Amino acid sequence: MYEKQAVSIASAFDEKELSALVVGESAAMRDVMTIVRQIAKYPATVVLLQGESGTGKDVIARALHYLSARPPHKFVAINCAALPDMLLETELFGVEAGAFTDAKVSRDGYILRADGGTLFLDEIGSMPRSLQAKLLRFLETRSFCRIGSTRTIHVDLRVVSATNVDLHTAVREGLFREDLYYRLKVVTITLPPLRERPEDIGPLVEFFLHHYGAEIENVEPLRISAEAMELLYQYHWPGNVRELRNVIQRGQILCEDHEIRPRDLPEQLCNVATSMRQQLWEMPRLLHLPEDGLDLPAFLQRIEKKFIMEALERCAGNQVHAAQLLGVTRDQLRYRLLKMRAES
Known about the structure:
The protein is an alpha/beta fold. The chain folds into three domains: 2-192, 3-Layer(aba) Sandwich (Rossmann fold); 204-287, Helicase, Ruva Protein, domain 3, CATH 1.10.8.60; 289-344, Homeodomain-like (Arc Repressor Mutant, subunit A, Orthogonal Bundle), CATH 1.10.10.60. It starts with a helix and ends with a helix. It is built from 15 helices and nine strands. α2 packs across α3, α13 packs across α14 (319-326) and α14 (319-326) packs across α15 (330-343).
């Protein structure tokens, strides 16, 4: 009964919520969402999200919530690294009036507020060991006591935790409890960095353009030039999706005529592109004809094929965008593709 209810609610949220929450066309993100949909059918399962900062762990946590049978209830998130040890404990478990000097009234914690819904523990690796034992007991029993109280409170919720550090290493170094680590990783989802899925840059940019362009009413749609888009593809994105979102938001503020151009992008993006172009244009100086000569047509054909295939991969198969990256017309690109197929 519970699983059937989860599936029916998930179908209502598939297109509406996920199109806004999760943007990606790469095989890696499709695999992630396949796992998310499967886990969503089991709304009590504990989930651990791993990945670099900015890869969208909070977005996946929300997707798990909205695709499960829990959307009518709350999604409650707390950053374990943002609060001092004592305050983190009171925020999680709540406090009874008189438990300590400043506790004037009884107050619910995040766990009780999330009852029936989802509790998201971000940066779980930063939780102090003293609190890890108490969290482990809660995960085992789904019950707890407010600080200063002996009354046991039972809750029904899903716990999703996230980390951008290697918890296995933290366990070996004595910084994280081994028993809690294995209790948190009932199911583990690892989110790939943006640099490993460049085919998602285009869809993400389109999503952010629409999102930020819609903030101001009665204006033209926000656009990005082909030159600026090329810079986005060349950058390595250490800040992942969060950094890309910030770049588009910055471009929206600085651009003219509602079109983001290279001059509207951060300096580090332009510097990377300049360096790559310089290396590419210096390549002929480094090349020398072999003593026994070479097959020049075959050599040039190989280089052309490499750039064409890379452009198509970056643009998720969109020939118009790929042609713009290569500085040719769509017809010229199509001619080259037909020629490549005939020669293969």
